[in-house]
Structures are given as structure tokens and as C-alpha cells.
Amino acid sequence: MNSAAGSLRDKRAIVTGASRGIGRDIALHFASAGADVAIAARNTEALLALQDEILALGRKCIVITADVTAEGAATKIIEQAESGLGGLDILVNNAGGNSFSVALQSMKFSGWQKTMALNLDSIVLLIQAALPALLQSGNASIINVSSVAGLRGAPLMSHYGAAKAALISLTQSLAIEVATQGVRVNALVPGWIETDLTDFLRAEDTVEQGLLSQVPMGRWGRSDEIAQGALFLASDASSFMTGQVLVLDGGQSARA
Ligand SMILES: NC(=O)c1ccc[n+]([C@@H]2O[C@H](COP(=O)([O-])OP(=O)(O)OC[C@H]3O[C@@H](n4cnc5c(N)ncnc54)[C@H](OP(=O)(O)O)[C@@H]3O)[C@@H](O)[C@H]2O)c1
């Protein structure tokens, strides 16, 4: 038995969207497991606060202030991570989200494009930029953070659901393309998680109760519960797993 399977000792990881929520917890879990971590997002102040916590764990931490949707951002982000960490073994594409709900009939195409740019296009470019370094690693893991909204119909969120569903398909295709080259690619699918992203859903009691009634475990998930899944996918504990979808949703998707 390999007791070090869950360790990330001396691995070099980049986590996008690490300034808060799920990404922040993933970065902390990775550092606690022994990884050096590059953290990317737009809010420098929040990243610097996280950097202090990671340095206190005795690991290296590179802060990268960037909007993943900006022109040329992906190349710059990966270059900074690679040069700061001396290579790359783990890429977590976590930056994402959804800022509006509307029926497809009334959706402005600009809203659709903005959602795709953040949740899909930016990830394509980040993966393309990072692949040379990940292939060089020889034991690399890409984790794409999707959503239960990408598993089946997501009324009023067709834009977000479509982006997250496409991300799962991309995960499967890429996983097969690089399967023999030392790079594993998996999707991590959170259900309803208590973060800033879902604050508006807790604002009204009836909305919150309606949502939680869809979750067999009857509660919000926590960022640290998703980070545990990311740790599993990043580490050798999942060494024979690629092209798969790890769903952490309190049983929500088990319902018909
Ligand atoms: N919470 C949920 O219930 C849930 C469920 C399923 C899937 N997810 C997915 O999980 C991921 C994380 O969600 P979360 O709940 O932790 O959201 P969150 O609390 O809103 O955090 C989102 C993170 O992404 C960063 N980000 C957003 N837009 C960015 C951009 N253009 N460039 C760079 N960074 C950007 C934000 O940082 P800055 O603002 O500093 O840039 C922040 O660090 C997302 O992909 C989301 O779709 C969440």
C-alpha cells in the first residue's frame, strides 16, 4: 500500500479563482499536502492574504493578478506560474461563475458570450498554454471545475449549464488525447456550495428552502468538501483515474 498516495509533496500547482470560495480552499489544501502553489484571480489584496497563509505552511506561493478572460492572459498566467515554481504538475481551472438568470428566449447574446468566455474559452487557452509544462512533468493532473448545472437541464441558466457541460466533454476528449503521456484530466462537479457565488440564493428563505429540498443531504456543501475532491484528483490517490467526473453534491444528481 502506498500511504503517500494522497500527498502532493513538492508538486507545483496553479489554481485559478483562488482569491475566495472553492479555489481558495483548494489552494490551502494543496499547500497543506506539500505543494507549492501559484494563485490567480483579479483581487490582489485577497490573493496576498492567502499567500501569507500558504507561506506560513512552509510552501512557496506565487501571486498572479489576472483576469482570465483578458486577451493574452492565459499565456502570461502560465508563464508566471511556471517560472515562479520551476515547472508545473497540476492545473486547477476553477475561476468561473454565473452572474445572471434569464430564459434563453430573452437572453442577450453578449451575456451568453461573456459566460462562455469565463467558463469555457479561458480554460481552453489556459490548458493550451500549460500543456507543454504538464507533459514535461510526466505525472500531471488537470482538474476542471464544472457544475451540477452541466449534468442536465439548467432552466434560466442555459448559458452557464452549456458552458459547464462543454467543459465536461472537453475534459473527456483531452483525457483520451493525453492518456499515455503522463497527464490525467478530470472534472470536479460541485453541487450547491456556500460561497459568495451563491449568496443571492440565501437572501430569500423560500428560494433557499426550494434549493435545499433538491439536495438529499438537505444542506449546503462547503468549499473544504470540494477541496478534498480536488486533492484526491491532484494526487496519486487517483492515479488510474482520467476522463472522469467526480460529483460532490450531497446526492442532488442521484435524483431522477
Ligand atoms: N458555489 C457553488 O455552488 C458552485 C457550484 C457548482 C460549481 N461551482 C463552480 O466552482 C468554481 C468556484 O466557484 P465559487 O463558488 O468558489 O465562486 P466565487 O466564490 O464567486 O469565487 C470565484 C473565484 O473566481 C475568480 N474569478 C471570477 N472571475 C474571474 C476572472 N474573470 N478572472 C480571474 N478570476 C476570476 C474570483 O476572483 P476575483 O473576483 O478576485 O477575480 C474568485 O476567486 C466556479 O467555476 C463555479 O462555477 C460553484
Explain the overall architecture.
The mean pLDDT is 97. The protein is built from eight helices and seven strands, in the order βαβαβαβαβαβαααβ. The protein has one domain (12-247): Rossmann fold, CATH 3.40.50.720. It is an alpha/beta fold. The chain is 43% helix and 15% strand. It has a seven-stranded parallel β-sheet with strand order 3-2-1-4-5-6-7, with helices on both faces. Helix 5 (158-177) links the parallel strand 5 and strand 6. It binds NADP nicotinamide-adenine-dinucleotide phosphate.
Q: What distance separates the N and C termini?
A: 38 Å
Label the overall shape: globular
Number of domains: 1
Question: So, the CATH homologous superfamily?
Answer: NAD(P)-binding Rossmann-like Domain
* Total beta strands: 7
Arithmetic mean pLDDT: 97
Counted by DSSP, the helix tally is 8
Order of adjacent strands in the largest pleated sheet: 3-2-1-4-5-6-7
What's the order of the H and E elements? EHEHEHEHEHEHHHE
User: Which consecutive residue ranges, at least 5 long each, have pLDDT under 50?
Assistant: none
Compute the CA-based radius of gyration. 17 Å
Give the helix level as a range of percent. 40-55%
Question: Which cofactors or ions or other ligands sit in this model?
Answer: NADP nicotinamide-adenine-dinucleotide phosphate
Strand content: 5-15%
User: Biggest sheet, open or closed, and with what strands and sense?
Assistant: 7 strands, parallel
The CATH architecture name reads 3-Layer(aba) Sandwich
Structural class: alpha/beta
CATH fold-level assignment: Rossmann fold
Classified by CATH, the class is: Alpha Beta
